[in-house]
Amino acid sequence: MSGGRKEQLGQIVRFALVGGVNTGTFFGIYLLLHPWMPYFAAYSLAFVLAMVGSFFMNTYFTYRTRPTWKKFLLFPLTNVTNYVIQSAGLYALVAWAGMDTRIAPLVAAVVAIPFTFLISRRILVPGAARAAEPEPVEAGPSRV
């Protein structure tokens, strides 16, 4: 396994660990807020609070990069996709599938994970988009 692939695999594993911690944090905040406000308001507030924690965990641990104000201000873009996917999923699971409002956010969060990884890596790791592109294959002598 090449060094670049090994590092990317390490990032995926660390992202999964951070995602688990972040999801637990989000879900805990959501459950604390749920009795005091409508489920979607509790969901939105928990999402924003968990996103701030996610930024720091991902910069320091997942991608091992220095947090900057620019990255902090761009990081919510990673979560816009996550928020849209999770919100649509939450609505569909509650309104159409009749899922319990205490469980639906967790199910919706799992679906958004791959999208969030790709977008956050692109924002937090300089040159990550170029590194993910396949290297051109040089043409060698043809063998017939």
Counting copies of identical and different chains, the oligomeric state is single chain
Helix content: over 70%
Which shape, going by the Cα principal axes?
elongated
Structural class: mainly alpha
Mean pLDDT over all positions:
84
Provide a count of the helices: 5
State the total count of DSSP E strands.
Answer: 0
Ends apart, CA distance between termini: 30 Å
Largest sheet: none
Query: Order of helices and strands, N to C?
Result: HHHHH
Description:
The chain is mostly helical. Helix content is 76%, strand content 0%. The protein has five helices and no strands. The model is unreliable at 131-144 (pLDDT under 50).
Write the layout of secondary structure elements.
Layout: H1 3-33, H2 39-62, H3 69-96, H4 104-124, H5 128-132
Helix pairs in contact: 1-2, 1-4, 3-4
Structure keywords:
disordered C terminus, 0% strand, 5 helices, 144 residues, single chain
Concise account of the structure shown:
This protein is mainly alpha-helical and 144 residues long. The chain contains 5 helices and no strands. α1 crosses α4 and α3 (69-96) packs antiparallel against α4 (104-124).
